[in-house]
Specification:
about 260 residues; 2-enoyl-CoA Hydratase, Chain A, domain 1; 12 helices; alpha/beta; about 15% strand; single chain; four-stranded mixed β-sheet
């Protein structure tokens, strides 16, 4: 078990479970991003892995990027950061020719939302919620959220929840197609494992080809979108709204975008 303490991996009955494990909110720092990339590389190269189950430890899937750490290395351009972290990870998930199921056990926001949406299937706890998050710190969506969220729930809803930063609760998420299934929080882990095992027993090779079909038909511009998001995020990252958003976040106060 485990690639590192910060990202846990366990292979059982053809299912590689990848657990984000950075308390309290499983926020991504550079180490966790690298460990998650390594876990998906392991999944791609291991013939015993027939399905990936991605989840978070505790009561949170992931709060996205660790804003405090990112500010500590503020001399790193945001575009450079994205091109080496989240963008390759999103492409790894979409290019993995095995089914990837996300078990959303709590809040998911920011870049972690893009990671969850890049998975083929999503099962959410009835207590889970989905927050776009970026505009709260004066940034534009990245990690393919600008493509995947409107694709799943429509442009109007995507715009509303991006601009408002309001959470999408599990019920509407199911009704709008953001998730495939909802389970009681206490049963999420067992139900997700059962579903992943069913997938692992299926025609995984054909599933991989179907995934190629979907990538070509629906997400053919994914790589270009990720690159453009990184370009726009570099612009946003140099703006006053981002400076105020980060300062407000760290000072635990509402931002003043005036």
């Amino acid at each position: 078990m485990s690639t590192s303490e910060i990202v846990l991996t366990e292979l059982n009955q053809g299912v590689l479970t990848i657990t984000l494990n950075r308390p309290k909110v499983n926020a991504f720092n550079f180490e966790m991003i690298a460990a998650t990339q390594a876990a998906f590389k392991q999944a791609a190269g291991d013939s015993q892995t027939r399905c990936v189950l991605l989840t978070g430890s505790g009561g949170v899937f992931s709060a996205g990027q660790d804003v405090s750490e990112f500010r500590q290395v503020g001399d790193v351009p945001i575009r450079y950061h994205l091109l080496r972290t989240y963008n390759p990870l999103i492409l790894q998930i979409r290019r993995l020719e095995k089914p990837v199921l996300a078990a959303i056990n709590g809040v998911v926001s920011g870049a972690a939302l893009g990671i969850a949406l890049a998975c083929d299937l999503r099962m959410a706890a009835d207590t889970a919620s989905f927050v776009v998050g970026f505009l709260g710190i004066g940034l534009a969506p990245d990690s393919a959220v600008s493509l995947l969220l409107p694709t799943l729930i429509g442009l109007g809803r995507a715009s509303e929840f991006t601009f408002s930063n309001a959470p999408i609760e599990a019920g509407p998420a199911l009704a709008w197609g953001l998730v495939n299934r909802v389970a009681p929080a206490a049963e999420l882990a067992s139900q997700a494992r059962d579903w992943a095992r069913q997938l692992a027993q299926g025609p995984v090779g054909a599933m991989g080809l179907a995934k190629r079909d979907f990538n070509k038909a629906v997400l053919g511009n994914l790589e270009g979108v990720l690159d453009y998001e990184a370009h726009l995020q570099e612009i946003a990252g140099k703006g006053r709204e981002h400076q105020e958003g980060v300062a407000a976040f760290l000072e635990k106060r509402p931002p003043k975008f005036i």
